[in-house]
């Protein structure tokens, strides 16, 4: 039976005395990840393309997102305008690229705030347990019992539409479900002997949670946050479609589907097709990448894969 290439390389390094560098180890790990998780690798490419489009939108887009091109109203996709133009002579490809910046800003900011809030609730609830855990979990139950869309629309009706208000509303709701997952991971970590040993050596509650529990539940937080990114971007698109998300003139994929996108859907279908493709592709990419990271970071699933 043929021996794995990685084992032969390790033996050659051991015999020759040379040790692989960090870059080489990273490339080998990346190649192994792409070979074992092709859908996860595809999702990673989609996420990378989204981040590059958001960071370098001014250099990628041929026009500004709000620039009106004379004599280019409702031009179908072609060599000059890859995705066509809309009813006010704006380049749809440029608006899709700049819309990636809105999705990245809202998505990552929301997930970061939600992860901080959920980690605080989940770790403290799983660590202290007792009455504190009971009270906190009943609040989380009430938190999750309300329909998400109703709560978001109610909050945005009070706060008003805008990027910051959208981030705050989505992060509050996302933290509820995430805190449950982090609490479950914390309950399994606090039962390990090294937690009791650290407590016997005089470690306080804050040191135990920050130095011993948080690093061990960090993979769970990363996986849940990666999977949540797709849902947050989809929720932001839905809010923009309803008129409660990021207001004009900032281009949002959901906002491009609404309004003129619905009005000219039959006359100029590319106005609705390309924003829908962008939303679907990004959500699929984040879901596949999160699922692959879960298999890689979870020791039980990693052993099952081997």
């Amino acid at each position: 039976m043929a021996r794995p290439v990685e084992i032969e390389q390790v033996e050659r390094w051991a015999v020759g005395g040379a040790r692989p560098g960090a870059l080489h180890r990273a490339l080998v790990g990346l190649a192994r990840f792409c070979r074992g998780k092709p859908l996860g690798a595809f999702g990673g490419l989609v996420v990378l393309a989204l981040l590059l489009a958001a960071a370098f939108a001014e250099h990628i887009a041929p026009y500004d997102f709000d620039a009106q091109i004379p004599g280019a109203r409702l031009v179908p996709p072609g060599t000059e305008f890859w995705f066509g133009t809309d009813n006010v002579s704006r380049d749809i490809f440029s608006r899709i690229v700049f819309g990636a910046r809105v999705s990245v800003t809202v998505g990552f900011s929301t997930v970061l705030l939600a992860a901080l809030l959920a980690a605080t609730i989940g770790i403290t609830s799983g660590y202290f347990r007792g009455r504190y855990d009971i009270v906190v979990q009943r609040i989380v139950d009430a938190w999750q019992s309300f329909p998400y869309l109703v709560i978001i629309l109610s909050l945005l009706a009070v706060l008003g539409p805008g990027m910051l208000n959208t981030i705050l509303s989505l992060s509050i709701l996302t933290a509820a479900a995430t805190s449950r997952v982090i609490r479950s991971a914390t309950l399994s970590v606090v039962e390990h002997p090294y937690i009791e040993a650290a407590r016997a050596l005089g470690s306080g509650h804050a040191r135990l949670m920050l130095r011993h529990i948080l690093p061990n539940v960090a993979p769970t937080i990363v996986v849940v946050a990666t999977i949540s990114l797709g849902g947050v971007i989809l929720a932001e698109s839905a809010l923009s479609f309803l008129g409660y998300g990021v207001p004009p003139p900032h281009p949002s994929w959901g906002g491009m589907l609404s309004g003129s996108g619905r009005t000219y859907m039959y006359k100029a279908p590319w106005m609705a097709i390309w924003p829908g493709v962008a939303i679907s592709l990004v959500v699929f990419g984040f879901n596949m990448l999160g699922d692959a990271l879960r298999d890689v970071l979870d020791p039980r699933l990693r052993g099952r894969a081997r």
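The radius of gyration is 24 Å. Residues 43-305 form a domain with the MetI-like fold fold (CATH 1.10.3720.10).
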